[in-house]
Give the backbone structure.
Amino acid sequence: MHGETDTRQQILQAALKWFARKGYAGTSVSDIVTTARVSRPVLYYYFGSKAGLYRALVDWAAEERLRLMREAVTRATTLAGQLREIAITMFEFACANRELMRLAFATAVAASGEVPEEAECFKKGFKSFLFLEDLIRRGQENGELTRRFDTRALAMGFAGLMHLHVLLHVLKPDQPLDRTVAETLVEVFLHGAAPGRAENHAPKRTNAVRRNGHTSARKKQSE
């Protein structure tokens, strides 16, 4: 069983490398099996087809992000703390999985036919957004967020801020994607950027850069 898991992971890693580099249409099964050092029948045994392999990668990314978000909110008791933990966690995930993020963005903007059943691939991914939307709705209900704005609009605003930072990091690896960026993002979202509003909440610069999946300085307790 352990050997089967290793083989499956080997194929996934090889596929990710090629899909991120050449796209779905530009990648051949030969590219993948050569890099993974397996035969075509082995690839088809685990994934059925190249399309099945592509969907497996995108689905795994969606499931892992949702799992990490659920775990992140348990580390804080306030909405501000929970949003901060989500942003930090998503940035950490992006730093550790740059090729996967590149693949996800490429899939999101792909034209019809460029990737297999792109809408199906992102059905699971939407669950992460719904989780965030529900968190913000609860924040509105308990008075931590204003009800002047539509819940979905707020969720889209916060998710958009996170995704833009991740996209910039994918395009330019030297673009910061650390705890300070996450904290600033949350403060701007919650308190705005107008004078006198965000100034009292501005985070101090830290060295907690996460690029290999392991943080060097995480606060033990969020608000």
User: Anything to note?
Assistant: Residues 2-26 form the longest helix (25 residues). Confidence is low (pLDDT under 50) at residues 207-222. The two ends are 43 Å apart (CA to CA). The chain is about 65% helix and 0% strand.
